[in-house]
Amino acid sequence: MTIKEVSEKYSVSQDTLRYYERVGMIPPVTRTSGGGQILICTAGEGWYQEFGKEPVSLSEGKVIVIPANVKHWHGAKADSWFSHIAFEASGENTSNEWCEPVTDEEYNALEEK
Q1: Count of the separate structural domains present in the chain
Q2: What is the pLDDT of residues 6-48, one digit of tens each?
Q3: Mind giving me the DSSP string for 67-108?
Q4: DSSP H or E stretch at residue 9
């Protein structure tokens, strides 16, 4: 996909995509292969966590590049709101699988970290 196609498909400005590409925060969209997801925190505060790993705190400007086939979740912190852009990196035979919800016990334990 070209930057223009990604921009149109995901309603993200071409300038924003070029900026993140230029500063090295995401791999170039036109050369990404193998799928995966790119998560950009645009405002507020949130959490990102891969299955079996420690959580990562998210704040404005934080970018997470998630490889294909990595089970994860992301969402707002308990005392904040969270705005983000998430889009799938180009690849062949890619898909998205929604998994089980994060339990209250798992979520509440994050605030202790």
Answers
A1: 1
A2: 677 666 677 776 655 554 444 443 334 567 888 999 999 999 9
A3: -TT--EEEEE-TTS-EEEEEEEPP-SS------PPPPHHHHH
A4: helix 3-10
Q: Which residues have C-beta within 8 Å of that of residue 6, sequence separation ≥ 6?
A: 12, 17, 29, 87, 90
Query: What is the extent of the structural domain holding 51?
Result: 3-110
Assess contact for 72 and 55: CB atoms under 8 A: no
Q: What is the pTM of this model?
A: 0.66
Instruction: Tell which wins on pLDDT, 61 or 113.
Output: 61
Cβ neighbours of residue 21 closer than 8 Å, sequence gap 6 or more: 3, 27, 28, 29
How buried is 6 (Cβ within 10 angstroms: 0-12 exposed, 13-18 middle, 19+ buried)?
A: buried
| CATH number where 42 lies | 2.60.120.10
